[in-house]
Amino acid sequence: MRISELARQTGVTPRALRYYEEQGLLRPSRSASGYRRYDSQAVITVRHIQLLISAGLNTMAIAEILPCVPDDVTVLAPTCPELLDALAQERIRITGSIERLAAARDILDRLIEAGDRS
DNA sequence: GTTCTTACA
DNA sequence: TGTAAGTA
Predict the structure, then answer these.
(1) Who is most buried in A33, A49, A51, A97, counting CB within 10 A?
(2) What's the burial of A57, exposed, middle or buried (CB within 10 Å: 0-12/13-18/19+)?
(3) d(CA A88, CA A84)
(4) d(CA A109, C1' B8) / Å
(5) What digits encode the pLDDT tens for the residues A7-50?
(6) A100 with A106: CB under 8 angstroms?
(7) Is 90 exceeded by the pLDDT of residue A73?
(8) Strands (DSSP E) along A1-118, which ranges?
(9) Strand C neighbors by CB, 7 A
(10) Strand B–CB A14 distance below 7 A
């Protein structure tokens, strides 16, 4: 299928699909005219990509763990140590982000309370 | 008409 | 990420 069809089936814009390719997440073949050709498997792969992005992983991390996911897997699950490790690592990363945000919120709370009293 | 690349906001 | 230009 061509890019617009994959976009239709996944809800991902052609722009984003080209970006995924640029980031090494998709490897579409090319027609003689230069058009990208995606197999039906790409639909599943894009769904995996979307799921991992939803989980907060950046494209670099996804590019590293995507090859670890078998093509016939429709429900993404940690099938290899690398994937499990990448997910655990991402969890650690976002935990740090949450802590920094919470600290920022505490500061804002103090500032807001100080404002209320003056 | 659709898609491609490149580039800018 | 959206959009525009100029092609194939």
Answers:
(1) A49
(2) buried
(3) 6
(4) 40
(5) 999 999 999 999 999 999 999 999 999 999 999 999 999 999 99
(6) no
(7) no
(8) 29-30, 36-37
(9) A 13, 15-16, 19, 33-34
(10) yes
Q: How far is CA A114 from CA A71, A101, A107, A117, in A?
A: 57, 20, 11, 5
Chain A 40-99 residues whose Cβ is under 7 Å from strand B: none
Residues 6+ away with beta carbon under 8 Å from A44 = A71, A73, A74
Residue-range domain boundaries for chain A: 3-117
CA–CA separation, A63 and A68 (whole Å): 10
Q: What would be the CATH architecture of the domain defined by A3-117?
A: Orthogonal Bundle (1.10)
- Nearest nucleotide relative to A33: CA against C1': C8
Across all strands, nucleotide nearest A15 (CA–C1'): C1
The structure tokens listed for A14 are 């052609």
Would you tell me how many other CB atoms lie within 10 Å of the CB of residue A117? Answer: 5
Structure confidence at residue A70 as a pLDDT band (50, 70, 90)? confident
Question: Which of helix, strand or coil describes residue A25?
Answer: coil
